[in-house]
Amino acid sequence: MALERVERPAEGEAGGLLVLHHGRGTDEGDLIGLADALDPSRRLRVVSPRGPLRLPGSPGYHWYLVPRVGFPDPETFFAARVALAELHDELWAEGGIGAERTVLGGFSMGSVMSYAMGLGAERPAPAGILAFSGFVPTVEGWQPSLSDRAGTRAFVAHGRNDPVIGVDFARQARELLEAGGIEVEYRESELGHQIDPSQLSDARAWLELALPG
User: Fold this and answer.
1) CA distance linking residue 206 with residue 212, whole number of Å
2) For 171-196, what is each residue's pLDDT tens digit?
3) What is the rounded distance in angstroms from the CA atom of residue 163 to the CA atom of residue 54?
4) Measured between alpha carbons, how far is 184 from 54 in angstroms, rounded to an integer?
């Protein structure tokens, strides 16, 4: 399944790739506006794909069905992983920039897919995972692979008053990643289920470490 996508190109030759995966019920245009906030010098190619699902009575697009927070529906989760694997491989082939110069990021459900792709044993390890308001998923048939991700960094940010995905999910993700040897930069705010604009400068500085010039 070919996923629709939007792009903010680099200025000149791209020094890396940032893929931003949107949250539940939005589309590929939702996060592309973060490109200039996270990469104001425009040294990176920034791409945002559209989730594969449309749900009756629900706006926008989705990556998987949600029977319970933290536990994606396996069938739609694995289908989204296949579609994203095809997209990521295509992006790497197109630009000549591999996983080692790629950061996978997202918000909410998009963060879940960033973890799912960035920590999948059969997928190449990215330079970094940028996770706003998400969780490392629990799905039968999928486990995060950490011992082979020594070069991967993570930036995890979450609101303490998040009513959709509780902050404990972020704290658990931090513990899991650090126990697996992944360097984590962690931020909490007093906000709810949203990206804290005050944390974007920290995310930008982290991104420069994950994808140095």
Assistant:
1) 10
2) 999 999 999 999 999 999 999 999 99
3) 23
4) 33
